[in-house]
C-alpha cells in the first residue's frame, strides 16, 4: 500500500528537477496540499486492517519528514541562484557614496528641561508630574487665589467649562503633593502650562519648573542659595541676578528673580517665596512646626538667555533651519 523507497525516490527526483520557485511550489502542493498525495494516502488508512495501520502510518510520516527536508533545501538552493544571477547580471557602482541619513536631535527646550531636572535630582529633589488639565480648585482656590484675582480672568486662562481648565502654572502640583505626602518634602515638577498670551516673551503654551521644600527651620536664605546655585550652574558663568519683592497669593514673603540680558534688559525668570501658612494648613501641615519655600521658573526664558534669543516664539515655529543649530 505504501512503498517508501519508491515514493521517496520519485519525490526527490521531481524536486531536484524543478528549475524555479513556481515549479517547486506546485510539487509541494501536489504532495502536501489538502487534496495532495499524502492526504489521500492518510485517508486510505481507514480501510487498512488495524494491525497494518501503525506500520504504514510510520512509513508515511517518515516519508513526509524526509521529503520536506529536501523541499526546504532545494528552495534555499533556488533562492541563492536568484541572488547570484542578480549579482552577476546587475551593475553596481561600488564607488558611489552612501545615502545621507538625517538624524533628528533634541529640541532646545527639551535640552534645557533635562539640564534643570538633572540639577534638582542631584540635590535630592523628587520629580512629581501632574496632569495638564486641572480643576479650578487646585489651580486657584487651594493656592489662595481668590475669585477676583487677575490670573482668573478668562483673558489668561483656557477653560473647558466652569470647573476644568488647562493649568496656568505648575503650582497646582505644590498643593496636590502636599496634601498627599507629609514633611519633610523636597519636590520638583516640570511640564507644560497654558495662558492666553502671545508676544516676544509669551506663547500660549510654555514650560515651567516648580520646586518646593517643606521641613523644619526652612528659611528664605535656603531659597536664595538654591536659586543662586542653580543659575550659576545652568549658565556656567556669573550673570547679574536681582531678587525683586513681589506678590503671590500662595507665598509670603514673595519675590521674583530677574536676570540682566545682553541688551541691558531685566528678564523675569522665576517667582518664589516662603509657602503661605494658609497653604500649609490646607494641606494639614502645621505652620507652627514646619515651613517651606517654593519657586516656579519659566523654561523658555532660561533658554532665551542661554542661547541669546530675543523672541520666544521661534522655539515653537519648528523651522528646521533654526532647530538644527542646536544639534550637538
Ligand atoms: N506659579 C507662579 C507663576 O506662574 C510662580 C511661583 C511659583 C511663585 C512658586 C511662587 C512660588 O507665576
Distance between the termini: 75 Å
Described by strand count, sense and barrel closure, the largest sheet is: 7 strands, mixed
**Regions with little confidence, pLDDT below 50 for 5+ residues:** none
The proportion of residues in beta strands is 15-25%
The name of the CATH architecture of the largest domain is: 2-Layer Sandwich
> Helix fraction?
40-55%
**Name of the CATH superfamily of the largest domain:** Bira Bifunctional Protein, Domain 2
Q: Overall pLDDT, averaged?
A: 92
Structural class: alpha+beta
Task: Tell me the number of helical segments per DSSP (H or I, 4 or more residues long).
Answer: 11
* CATH classification class of the largest domain: Alpha Beta
| Strand/helix succession | HHHHHEEHEHEEHEEEHEHH
Note down, in words, how this protein is organized:
Tetramer of two alpha and two beta subunits. InterPro entries: aa-tRNA-synth_II, aa-tRNA-synth_II/BPL/LPL, Phe-tRNA-synth_IIc_asu, Phe-tRNA_ligase_II_N, Phe_tRNA_ligase_alpha1_bac, Phenylalanyl-tRNA_Synthase, tRNA-bd_arm. One of its GO terms (cellular component) is cytoplasm. Keywords: Aminoacyl-tRNA synthetase, ATP-binding, Cytoplasm, Ligase, Magnesium, Metal-binding, Nucleotide-binding, Protein biosynthesis. The chain has eleven helices and nine strands. Helix 2 runs antiparallel to helix 4 (50-89). The strands form two sheets. Strands 1-4-5-9-8-7-6 form a seven-stranded mixed sheet, with helices on both faces. A two-stranded antiparallel sheet has the order 2-3. The protein is elongated, with a radius of gyration of 37 Å. It has 328 residues and is an alpha+beta fold. The chain folds into two domains: 4-89; 108-326, Bira Bifunctional Protein, Domain 2 (BirA Bifunctional Protein, domain 2), CATH 3.30.930.10. It has helices spanning 4-17, 21-32, 37-44, 50-89, 108-122, 136-139, 171-180, 220-235, 277-282, 299-307, 320-323; strands at residues 126-127, 133-135, 164-166, 185-194, 205-215, 241-248, 251-260, 266-275, 291-298. The structure holds phenylalanine.
